[in-house]
């Protein structure tokens, strides 16, 4: 499979199959119905809709259900045919329904008073019969779907914005608007805080947890994506460039293996890791779609070194008053070589180069000495970048069919064929939780 990924032509791109238009306000979540030509959407216009593909190739709403306040998020469990809807008024509406052959029925079950403000994300766990949710009331809560009772709640210092949950160990990862990710161990009636992950400089907008390799991926408004290796603790830090990026080095104390994607364009709002093909798909608010090859050996990004003078020509930087006075020279601006991490002046780092093995898919500053060591084959891209041409606030994928659905504030839902750019197999082990 890895050989297949590496051999794909760089001209391969997502193919737009359908556009669904009909919502009168922003579409906050859309999920594909596994093994069916269907999509479920929730919107600020207070509607929950199930769209089915007709013989004409167009999608029509088979279910059109209106609730009391704007729908902010959704969790859909295909096997039990249960939908959990988060709303702007803080209530989590749990709608349980049995989908008939024509997908035209949805029966309401109960409403949980989960939060005091907008629900930002939620996950339903069939194993524990819990609904875990985060909200703008700065809390994460977990509720029992059998009894309908609140089991526990934890408060943060900032809005809780996104959530991932390990169904086996009952660990919850909660991202917030301060840029932190908190790892909690949830129990009935209690919980414990395991650790806090700090690396983002903006609000965390999306999380994805891979329980097989124990990798956590986070996307944020600082235009970056970080991969946290929760299980390894090898102390490695790798940085990648994407979505028309610049490069900044961040030292992350907890993770064992980190990849950082930084974007100058827009905030990263959706991501998905495909475990079988070892690819990461990320989407940003400006419609950028990036597909990263994670099944490759990469070099560790160096730490940026501190110095009062250029570590190549020894000319002083502009804050080095003493050396400027002693040498009667003007101070220079400090830069850093992305390959060796040394502090250098502009004259000693006049070159730009890609270096995908270290994560730099676009040209970045390289000192002249390191530039000479980069061979042409070292510049072979390890990621592809595409334009979704609409605002992407949420994304869902069905790897078994190679499909992706995107939606956002432009009220449009797009369905994509991703088989040209990502691996696709019925053996993906995809679980529609």
Automatic annotation (TrEMBL):
It is found in: Early endosome. Keywords: Endosome, Metal-binding, Repeat, WD repeat, Zinc, Zinc-finger. WD repeats lie at residues 20-51, 197-230, 261-302, 385-418. The keyword Transferase does not apply. It comes from the Eukaryota. InterPro entries: WD40/YVTN_repeat-like_dom_sf (IPR015943), WD40_PAC1 (IPR020472), WD40_repeat_CS (IPR019775), WD40_repeat_dom_sf (IPR036322), WD40_rpt (IPR001680), WDFY1/WDFY2 (IPR042234), Znf_FYVE (IPR000306), Znf_FYVE-rel (IPR017455). GO terms for cellular component: early endosome. Gene3D superfamilies: YVTN repeat-like/Quinoprotein amine dehydrogenase (2.130.10.10), Zinc/RING finger domain, C3HC4 (zinc finger) (3.30.40.10). Residues 304-375 form the FYVE-type domain. One of its GO terms (molecular function) is zinc ion binding. One of its GO terms (biological process) is positive regulation of toll-like receptor 4 signaling pathway. This is WD repeat and FYVE domain containing 1. It comes from Mastacembelus armatus.
């Amino acid at each position: 499979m890895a050989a297949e990924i590496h051999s794909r032509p760089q001209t391969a791109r997502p193919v737009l199959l359908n556009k669904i238009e009909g919502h009168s306000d922003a579409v906050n979540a859309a999920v594909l119905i596994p093994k069916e030509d269907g999509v479920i959407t929730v919107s600020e216009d207070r509607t929950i809709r199930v769209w089915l593909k007709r013989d004409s190739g167009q999608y029509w709403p088979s279910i059109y259900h209106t609730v009391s306040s704007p729908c902010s998020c959704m969790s859909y469990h295909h096997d039990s045919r249960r939908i959990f809807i988060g709303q702007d008024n803080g209530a989590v509406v749990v709608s349980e329904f049995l989908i008939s052959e024509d997908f035209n029925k949805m029966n309401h079950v109960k409403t949980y008073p989960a939060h005091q403000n907008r629900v930002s994300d939620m996950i339903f766990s069939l194993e524990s019969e819990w609904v875990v949710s985060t909200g703008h009331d700065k809390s994460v809560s977990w509720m029992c779907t059998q009894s309908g009772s609140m089991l526990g709640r934890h408060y943060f210092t900032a809005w809780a914005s996104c959530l991932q949950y390990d169904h086996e160990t009952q660990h919850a990862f909660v991202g917030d608007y301060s840029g932190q990710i908190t790892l909690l161990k949830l129990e009935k009636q209690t919980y414990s805080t395991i650790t806090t992950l700090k690396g983002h400089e903006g609000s965390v907008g999306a999380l994805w947890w891979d329980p097989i390799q124990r990798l956590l991926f986070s996307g944020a408004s600082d235009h970056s994506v970080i991969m946290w290796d929760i299980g390894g603790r090898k102390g490695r830090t790798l940085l990648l460039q994407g979505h028309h990026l610049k490069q900044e080095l961040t030292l992350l104390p907890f993770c064992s293996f980190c990849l950082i994607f930084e974007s100058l364009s827009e905030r990263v709002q959706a991501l998905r890791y495909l475990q079988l093909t070892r690819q990461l798909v990320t989407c940003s608010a400006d419609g950028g779609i990036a597909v990263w090859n994670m099944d490759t050996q990469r070099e560790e990004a160096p730490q940026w070194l501190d110095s009062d003078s250029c570590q190549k020509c020894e000319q002083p930087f502009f804050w080095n008053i003493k050396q400027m006075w002693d040498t009667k020279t003007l101070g220079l601006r400090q830069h850093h070589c992305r390959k060796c991490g040394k502090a250098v002046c502009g004259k000693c780092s006049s070159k730009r180069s890609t270096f995908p093995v270290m994560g730099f898919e676009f040209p970045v500053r390289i000192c002249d000495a390191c530039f000479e060591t980069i061979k042409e084959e070292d510049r072979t891209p390890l990621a592809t970048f595409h334009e979704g041409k609409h605002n992407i606030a949420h994304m869902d994928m069905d790897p078994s069919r190679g499909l992706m659905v995107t939606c956002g504030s432009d009220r449009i839902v797009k369905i994509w064929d991703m088989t040209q750019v990502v691996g696709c197999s019925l053996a993906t082990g995809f679980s529609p939780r």
